[in-house]
Write a structure and sequence with these properties.
141 residues, alpha+beta, five-stranded mixed beta sheet, 3 helices, 5 strands, 39% strand, elongated
Length: 141
């Protein structure tokens, strides 16, 4: 495998597994639609409110006996409600979904997935963004 290919593969697998969990959770669907609205790089912005992966940073963390990667993933819910209530409630549902989930990834195992922090900010008049950073540790499996 070419250098960097394994890291890209694990990032893609981890994001896909997290989005699968979020997309199948009834609590999240209550806020983000029965087919959860998720913005992507190659898709137009969906109706509000919606979820997007804003950032995914990874770095090797293994030693001589372990091939681990540590990931920091920033998820964001974007809402147009006048107050932050909808964005915060939707992100709380996302947090509940991911903290109680066991991720399924072919070739990888997530041994830790935990929210690090949540925040909500008003971007401009009429738009709120609730953000959550997740920390994940993944090993080959």
């Amino acid at each position: 495998m070419a250098p960097g290919a394994a890291v890209t593969g694990v990032e893609d697998a981890l994001e896909a597994a997290i989005l699968e969990v979020i997309g199948s959770d009834d609590g999240v669907k209550a806020y983000l639609g029965d087919v959860v609205r998720i913005a992507g790089e190659k898709t137009p912005r969906p109706m509000f409110p919606y979820l997007e992966v804003v950032r995914h940073q990874s770095e090797p963390a293994g030693g001589t006996d372990a091939d681990l990667t540590v990931h920091r993933i920033d998820l964001q819910v974007v809402s147009r409600q006048a107050e932050s209530v909808e964005a915060k409630a939707a992100m709380a549902a996302v947090r509940t979904a991911v903290t109680s989930a066991e991720l399924e990834m072919e070739g990888w195992a997530c041994i830790l997935l935990a929210p690090v922090f949540m925040d909500a900010v008003r971007r401009h008049a009429g738009e709120w963004r609730a953000m959550m950073r997740l920390k994940a540790i993944v090993e080959p499996g």
